[in-house]
From TrEMBL:
Domain Metalloprotease TldD/E C-terminal: residue ranges: 218-439
One Pfam family cited in the UniProt record for this chain: PmbA_TldD_3rd
Name recorded for this polypeptide: TldD/PmbA family protein
Amino acid sequence: MHAALPQFQTLAQWLGDALAPGEDFSLGYAAEQSDFVRFNQARVRQAGQVQQTSLDLRLIRDGRHAEQQLSLSGEPQVDRQRLAEALQRLRAVLPLLPADPYLRFNREPWRSHSLQLTALPDCATVLEQVVREAAGLDLVGFYAAGPVSRGFASSSGAFGWHQASSFNLDWSLFHGNGQAVKAQYAGQHWQPDAFTARLQQARDQLAYLGRPARSLAPGDYRAYLAPAALQEVLELLGWGGFSAKALAEKDSPLQRLHGGEARLSPLLHLHEQVSGSLLPGFSSEGFPRRDLQLIRAGRPGEPLVSARSAAEYGLPGNGASPWEAPSALVMAGGELAQAQVLERLGTGLYIGNLWYLNYSDRPAARITGMTRFASFWVEDGRIQAPLASMRFDDSLYRLLGSQLEALTRERELSLASSTYRQRHNGSSLLPGALLGGLTLTL
């Protein structure tokens, strides 16, 4: 990975020299050098490494633009030839395309440079600890680790470079009856004690899954959403909840919040925190990114504004991604100690995970979904039984508003586990949430 930056600089320089009068370009760079390991029954079943590099070339002329992605070989002459061929293909396509009225090309010559190449432990060291400490458990999981690089260059002189190392161990512990506890340990600094504690927490929850499952009648129940469950709620909210385009088209699930007709809890503070995250400080569209306060004490903050939305709706852009969803979401913690969660819950639901979430009434911010892994019925501060899969249907204005009693002091970091085409670098840092009421419907 040490040659990645000079390689990208050389290709960007060549491309700038190859432009014809009237042409502009933007060039995105993505590379990774990753260890991938799959576990089954707490044993390594598959292990390998992936090293890949790609470019995303966009050619612009007379308001028209076209893109092509190409893989790099690491051989300078071969890669230059591939880039030259891509340039010629885009030149042939551009005259056939209509002008884009919402194209916004950034002509500011900005600079951004970030290195977070923390030392990760040798992969064999991690595997040895996982296999040793999970002995006797049916652990099924996936480990991915290594450095990821992102770059951007344009004909305006803008140049951005970002490299960060991280690891992500995502696993489930299965009971003999087919039930499971799901867990994740992720970050940039592997701490053996932290992994041991996370595994022990999952092991403790696994012991309850052998009890007969409890089904509940529809109704309103006190509930605790663990960080992983809260993450599912916020990921759904990210589908338009903070999007400038959705707000402009009156299609945001938080439209009533922005219109002053509804409110969320004053405990709620949400940020898109690019600084210190694994995200680069620039967007794929070539605009610098900055930290944004999305929700401030339950009131609306700044929306996510992509370059295209900025052009279409006359808004100041803030470097948001084209899909205008949070990629480095951080929620402020509260005063509730994790060790006191069951006591404060009293009698109700401990929900470790949710799934199949969707909107049941988008304008009213009503969502529905199912309880999943490691969800329990609690009485008088003690876990009594695993919870049978139950459906809920409730409003975000209740869950994150009137029914939000407390947030935990401790927060859990989750890194994107998606490896579609490449390792993704999204993240969330969330507390758990104690709710006065959650409506079960089935």
